[in-house]
Here is the input.
Amino acid sequence: MPLKRSDWLLGNIEPLLLYMISDQPMYGYQIIKELEKCSEGYFSFKEGTLYPVLHRLEKEGLVRGEWHVLESGRQRKYYHITGKGLLVLEERRVQWPKFFAAVSMITKLPLTDTR
Amino acid sequence: MVSELVGYLSTLRDNLRLDRNAETEVLQELRGHVDDRLEELKKAGLSEEEANRRCIELLGSAKLLARQIYETYSRATWRQTLLASLPHFLFGIMFALNWWRVLCGSLFMLVLVVSILVYAWCRVKPRWLSSWLRYALLPVVASGLFLLWLPRSWAWLAILVYAVVGVCLLYCFTGRIKYRDWLYASLMLLPMPTIVAWFLVMEPSGSFPNYDVSWIDARALWKA
Here is the structure.
């Protein structure tokens, strides 16, 4: 059975989340909107599945959740990247070009042709 | 919020099976997400009912989501599990080797446990530390301090304090685990009656009564 796009995403979502949160603290819904926007709609998935991943990153100490009270009185949980998260992200940043280069060598697709 | 969405969140809550605090946080976060999504869908021109239906569709299956969140919160490594249960092993060794009768043995155990606690507290405050502090050491420290204060002839009262504190803690933790999984709670309680019975029949010398079990041998089926 061919892999669905969502399967690809879920296999790589943790470093993507770390990357986005490293730019600025974000809450869950904001992350989903940003993912869709930055990938021009390529990354879209069942929104609920984001939260187990975020909580897993929090349990592993890669991100830290903080509740903020909004002016309307509502509360929102913002996720901040931690020092450990930055280290892991840096490792992935080093690995990713090598990964794509290896994929390109196997598939004979040039790296710029991703569609 | 329309009943469909209320039903969705209710199904999620019923299947989460987390500790109360964790459950409250998770539901609050998801409710916030739902509110944001509903607001956007309504701004896009959908009616309340259509927006609710679309929101549920975008979130995905409530049961699957609950299971994924539960799996995230339930993860523990063997290392964490062993470290959390270490006080029980140490106290078991102390009684098995009769070190509790010897001041040096008890002191050695006490120093070892306190050293590990101080180290853990000062370094990383791991999750197993709460297991040590709360239900492993609290009854011992409470009854130990009580014993120091009591006159010698009233020392038995410290055992009573230990038993009462222990039962209270057991009740609290069983209640929390029962909420998550009644089968795990029953397995957790399984050895308790046996251990309590052993302590009750133990003689002051530390040995068990000399029971005559020859009647079992007389009724052995292989001797028919």
